[in-house]
Amino acid sequence: MTLPNKKIGDVLLKVDGITLSFGGVRAIRDVSFEIREHEILAIIGPNGAGKTSMLNVINGFYHPQVGTITYRGVTRPRAAPYEVAAQGIARTFQNVALFKGMSVLDNIMTGRLLKMRGNVLLEALYWGPARRQEMAHRAFVERIIDFLEIQAIRRVPAGRLPYGLQKRVELARALAAEPTLLLLDEPMAGMNVEEKEDMCRFILDVNEEFGTTIALIEHDMGVVMDICDRIVVLDYGRKIADGPPDAIRGDQAVIDAYLGLSHDEPAPRLAAAREPVAAGEG
Amino acid sequence: MDAIANGIVGPFADMVADPVFFLEVIVTGLMAGVMYSLVALGFVLIFKASGVFNFAQGVMVLFAALTLVGFEAVFRSMGLTAVPPMIPSLALTVIAMVALAFAIERLVLRPLVNQPDIILFMSTIGITFFLEGFGELLWGGDVKPLPIEQFGVGSGRYSIKIGGGQVLVQEIDLTAAVVAGVLVAALAVFFQRTRIGRALRAVADDHQAALSVGIPLKHIWVIVWSVAGVVALAAGIMWGAKSGVQFSLSLLALRALPVLILGGFTSVPGAIVGGLIIGVGEKIAETFWSPYVGSAIENWFAYGLALVFLLFRPQGLFGERIIERV
Questions:
Q1: Which residues of A fall within a CB distance of 8 Å from B205?
Q2: A-chain residues within 8 Å CB-CB of B209?
Q3: Are A1 and A211 in contact (CB under 8 A)?
Q4: What CA–CA distance (Å, rounded) separates A218 from A44?
């Protein structure tokens, strides 16, 4: 779809001043960033930084106490996850959430439910438009299956697959919805090097061929630096950096967040977090 | 030693000695089994669509039957003669069961999304107690007859001639079998073929994932509890016609449990086959074994069989394989 120097477009989704608390615990504090059309954005940060919570906010599982989310230029009211999905935001989960008892094919077909319309009676009879619809959707799903190279496991119950393949099926299910924005929560966690390479290739291909905007959480810095256009760094629920990989690599606040401060320096970690994009610490 | 040998060989000798009688026992058993299956179906529906064992299914049978005969009495006292009063009562009861589904979704299920299954199970026990009291408050607690003849089901019997003898089948039993058959066929197609069916299975598997692919949980739950309510009504009509509408109908939940263990909690055909096996097994055990080991086998036979299944095939005959990854 796009040439090697792909065009990153306008702001697709804008997260503005989000604060999310669970009881007394503030998981996200006043975080703002933008996701632009066609880009691959990584959200990184140490454990407990609020990355998954952020995805859950975007996806509608959590509702922030403060802040707004603007998607395609419209500030959205409190939305349920299925409404968010209907707007074209699909996601995968950190601990694979497949329908374990259903076959791979059925799992992926489930991802297309939103695209299906029609009459339950006709579907039951498998007749006329219902039959044509089912076949059209099946054809699309087969394309995704080919694309992700999972032809051989179509009929296998998802719960029986090895972890790496489950992650791939979950990606397939998300793609089946033809999302505008794809949220991936640690797509490469627990994978070996080969599986990671495959997954990277798929993510890049999805981005290039379908023009899908992708926001992903990942811990493997090598992967993040390689495939992402931009990186948002969270620490203790705050945004401490936001920029292209090269800028993030040298950012002192990010280095501190990941490696911790040396004990010679008195400045506590939180001080670093309090100053967004703090360059030079101590 | 002789007693033991008799106990093992004797029953089979009896079966062979009078094949027509044996056949009659089987037919009686099948008919009883269909009645169990009707109750078990409602459980399977809700289990498939929410992964929860709905303890309230038995009381839903009672509630549906109570509401039906309650409305019928009201219509009769109003002097309705143009149509049998059961017909409008049936329509109203279906509406009442759908309304009940809406209420359960709004008041019980929605606040408990993403809670562990055991929490949802406990809440269905709450629903059980509520419905028991509520039904009695509305319609009174006395045993009421269910005038099924208004639907055109007579009290006659059919005799089927086989070989030298004949097997008697009651018209109401045949009706129950037909109703069960139609329900199963419709539900199986609904689950396997339709978009909503696929969504139902998805919801049962993983709430979060279902939400994230755009399945609105609340609609699905209302649909499935409505369908389970209508299935409960069908079971309530058949059981009510046989034994009168009374409190003990709510205990049907316990009779359906072994059927579910046998057939598998997630299988619609399994509920039918499980019911038939238990029905036939009970009757055969009661008829041929009780002379040797004492009577009342019928009361525990089903549970014994269920226990064996739990040991060797916990997912039941047709259930989805239980897959555990570590």
A1: 98-102
A2: 93, 97-99
A3: yes
A4: 6
CA distance A131 to A129: 5
Question: Angle formed by the axes of helices B217-243 and B86-104, to 10°?
Answer: 140
pLDDT per position as a tens digit, B250-262: 887 788 889 999 9
Nearest to B59 by CA among B254, B318, B292, B276: B254
pLDDT at A180 over 90: yes
pLDDT average, residue stretch B115-143? 89
Q: Rounding to the nearest 10 degrees, give the CA dihedral for residues A248, A249, A255, A258.
A: 90
Using CB atoms, which residue from B193, B195, B205 is nearest to A102?
B205
Cβ of residue B203 closer than 8 Å to a chain A Cβ: no
Best mean pLDDT range from A179-183, B249-253, B308-312:
A179-183
Sheet containing A181-185: order of strands: A89-91, A181-185, A213-217, A40-44, A230-235, A238-243
Tokens 């339709």 label which residue? B194
What domains sit in chain A, N to C, each tagged with a CATH number? 1-88+179-282 (3.40.50.300), 100-178 (no CATH)
pLDDT at A273: 47
**ipTM attached to this prediction:** 0.76
Return the structure tokens found at B73: 């009495």
What is the rounded CA–CA span in Å between residue A92 and residue A176? 12
